[in-house]
Design brief:
Elements lengths: L6 H11 L6 E17 L2 E19 L2 E7 L4 H14 L12 E2 L17 H17 L4 E19 L3 E20 L2 E11 L5 H4 L2 H17 L1 E2 L3 E7 L6 H8 L4 H5 L20 E4 L20 E6 L2 E2 L6 H6 L8 E2 L8 E2 L3 E4 L6 H6 L3 E13 L5 E13 L2 E7 L2 E5 H7 E4 L4 E9 L2 E9 L2 E9 L9 H4 L10 H6 L9
Parallel strand pairs: 4-6, 8-18, 9-16, 15-22
Antiparallel strand pairs: 1-2, 1-5, 2-3, 5-6, 6-7, 9-23, 10-11, 10-15, 11-12, 13-14, 16-17, 17-18, 17-19, 19-23, 20-23, 21-22
Helix pairs in contact: 1-2, 3-5
C-alpha cells in the first residue's frame, strides 16, 4: 500500500474527529485505478484510464451522522476534513484513547492476471474481437456495442473502536449488446461477464462466445411470437439470474429501509414470509463473484448471512450505523461507491439457495406457463414489494414441453407474495452481475437463483389473449422447438451447482 497516512496519523485524525463530541468516527481512504473501453459504430469511441485518490471521514453522534471528504490524503488534509465533520456532529462523550489493531478476514481472493499488468492494447483487442465477431454472424445485426472495464482499488479503513484494515479489490467486466432488425421489428440481445477477478475472466468465456450469445438472443427475439397475457405458472431458469430476489426481496431486507418503515418486511422478524422451500442468503464470501468482498467499506470482514431460512425471516443486512441503533453487530453489508459517499447497507451476492429437484422435471411437470431464460430490467416498490420486470428471453410451456420463444413479456406481482407462491426449487444455481443503485451511488453485486417455479404470476404480453388460452399462446409452427436440455445446459452455460 502506498497510501501516505500511518497508523499514528490515522489515530490522531480520529481523535480530532471526536474532539467536539461524538460516539464513533471512521476513516475510509482509497486509491482507485480504472480503465474503460467502449466500442460503438464499429470503432473505439471511448478509452479512459485514470487514478482517483481521496478520503472520507464520518462522525456519528447518537442518530446523527456527519460526513466530510477530501482528495488530500496528507495528514493535514485529513485533519481539516476531520475538523469539518467534528463540528457538524457535536455531542457525545469525551475523547478516549484509540489503539488501532489490524483486522483479518477469512475470505481469500485470488487474481491470476492483474488487469493493471495487462497492456491497454490487449484490452482493446478483446473489445474489437467481440465487435467483429458479432457483426459477422448475421446481416440482420445492425448495431453492436462492446464495453470493457476494470478497477484496482487500494483502501485503508480505521475507526475509533480500534479497527484497522488494509485491502485491495480487483474487478473486471465485459459487456456485449447487439441490436437486430428485420423490417420494422427491432430486438436486442445482451451478455455480460465479470467478477472479482482479473484478465483471466476470458479463460471462462472468449469475447467471441460472449458476442455470439448476445447476437443469438437478439436474432431469436426477431422471430419470437408476441407473448400471451394472463395469470399462469412461471418457471424461471437458474440462468435467468437472481434479478427478482435482488429487487423484489433483497432491498426490503436492508436494515436502513426496515428501520425507516420503508420495507414490507419491517416488524416481521421471525415470521413466515416465504414458502418453506425458499432460503434467501446474502453471501459476500463466494469466490470470484462480482459482489464478493474481503472486507466491506467499513472494515468488517465479508460474511454469509441467511436472511430467510426455509421461509422464516431470520435477519436483515446491517452496516455499523444501523447495527448500533439495535445493539447488534454489522453483518458486513456497509458499502459505498467511493470515498465521496458514506456507507449504507447494501447487498453483495444475494441468492435463493438451491433445492434438490431436477430442473428438467420441474418443466415436465408444468402443464402450461412461461419459461424465463433471461430477465431484463424492472422496477420495484420496496415499501410494499410490488414489482414489474421485463423478460429478455422467454418461451411458452405446453404440457411439460417448451414450444417456442415469445417477446414482449413482463412479470407483474408482489415480492412477498411471489416468495409464498414458489412450489418447486431446482438443484442448480445461476449467477448474473450488475451494479446496484441506491441513494445516488452504485456498487458491484451478483444475484443468483436455481431453476424455480412460481405457481401463479401475472404475465403481461401483446398477443391479445389470455395466458390460460392455449390458442393465444400459439404453436411451434415454423419456429424451431428448443429442447429442455439445450435451454438449461446450453447457450451461456452459467448454471453452477453448489
Amino acid at each position: 500500500m502506498n497510501l501516505r497516512p500511518s497508523k499514528e496519523d490515522l489515530r490522531d485524525v480520529l481523535q480530532a474527529a471526536l474532539q467536539q463530541g461524538g460516539d464513533f468516527a471512521d476513516i475510509f481512504i482509497e486509491k482507485k485505478m480504472m480503465s474503460g473501453i467502449g466500442c460503438e459504430d464499429n470503432k473505439i469511441e471511448r478509452l479512459t484510464t485514470g487514478v482517483d485518490i481521496g478520503a472520507g471521514i464520518r462522525v456519528i453522534a447518537g442518530e446523527a451522522t456527519a460526513y466530510a471528504y477530501t482528495n488530500d490524503v496528507s495528514k493535514e488534509g485529513l485533519l481539516h476534513a476531520a475538523e469539518v465533520a467534528s463540528h457538524a456532529a457535536k455531542g457525545g462523550g469525551a475523547v478516549q484513547p484509540i489503539d488501532l489493531r489490524e483486522v483479518l478476514s477469512p475470505v481469500e481472493i485470488n487474481v491470476e492476471l492483474r488487469p493493471d499488468q495487462v497492456s491497454i492494447e490487449d484490452k482493446v483487442e478483446k473489445v474489437l474481437a467481440a465487435n467483429k465477431h458479432a457483426r459477422s454472424l448475421d446481416e440482420r445485426i445492425k448495431q453492436v456495442t462492446v464495453g470493457y472495464g476494470d478497477i484496482v482499488q487500494e483502501v485503508q479503513i480505521a475507526n475509533s473502536d480500534g479497527d484497522y484494515v488494509e485491502d485491495e479489490r480487483i474487478r473486471s467486466r465485459f459487456v456485449v449488446h447487439a441490436v437486430a432488425a428485420d423490417g420494422p421489428v427491432i430486438q436486442t440481445g445482451y451478455e455480460a461477464l465479470g467478477g472479482v477477478r482479473g484478465f483471466e475472466i476470458f479463460q471462462e468465456k472468449t469475447p467471441e462466445e460472449l458476442a455470439k450469445n448476445a447476437v443469438d438472443r437478439a436474432l431469436l427475439m426477431l422471430t419470437a411470437k408476441p407473448a400471451p397475457s394472463g395469470r399462469m405458472a412461471v418457471v424461471m431458469s437458474g440462468e435467468a439470474g437472481g434479478t427478482m430476489v435482488h429487487e423484489a426481496c433483497g432491498h426490503g431486507l436492508e436494515a436502513d429501509l426496515v428501520q425507516k418503515g420503508l420495507s414490507v418486511y419491517a416488524g416481521k422478524l421471525g415470521e413466515e414470509v416465504a414458502s418453506p422451500l425458499v432460503t434467501v442468503i446474502d453471501d459476500g464470501t463466494i469466490s470470484g463473484k462480482y459482489g464478493t468482498i474481503r472486507f466491506d467499506d467499513e472494515g468488517v470482514p465479508g460474511q454469509r448471512n441467511v436472511l430467510i431460512d426455509k421461509g422464516r425471516l431470520t435477519s436483515f443486512m446491517y452496516d455499523r450505523f444501523t447495527a448500533r441503533k439495535e445493539g447488534r453487530t454489522s453483518t458486513g453489508n456497509g458499502r459505498r461507491e467511493s470515498y465521496q459517499h458514506k456507507p449504507v447497507p447494501r447487498m453483495t451476492n444475494t441468492l435463493i439457495a438451491a433445492g434438490d429437484e431436477d430442473p428438467e422435471k420441474i418443466i415436465k411437470d408444468t402443464k402450461h406457463g412461461l419459461f424465463v431464460k433471461k430477465m431484463g430490467g424492472g422496477q420495484v416498490n420496496t415499501t410494499n414489494g410490488d414489482f414489474v420486470f421485463d423478460v429478455a428471453e422467454g418461451y411458452i410451456i405446453e404440457n411439460g414441453e417448451i414450444k417456442h420463444a415469445v417477446r414482449g413479456a413482463t412479470l407483474t406481482g408482489n415480492g412477498p407474495e411471489v416468495l409464498q407462491q414458489i412450489d418447486r426449487v431446482g438443484d442448480d444455481l445461476g449467477f448474473a452481475i450488475g451494479t446496484c443503485g441506491k441513494e445516488g451511488q452504485g456498487v458491484p453485486v451478483s444475484d443468483a437463483q436455481p431453476t424455480l417455479r412460481i405457481a401463479s404470476l401475472v404475465v403481461g404480453g401483446t398477443a391479445g389473449g389470455s395466458g390460460n388460452d392455449a390458442e393465444a399462446s400459439g404453436q411451434a409452427g415454423e419456429l424451431r422447438r428448443i429442447s429442455v436440455q439445450e435451454l438449461l445446459h446450453g447457450g451461456e452455460g452459467r448454471i453452477r451447482r453448489l
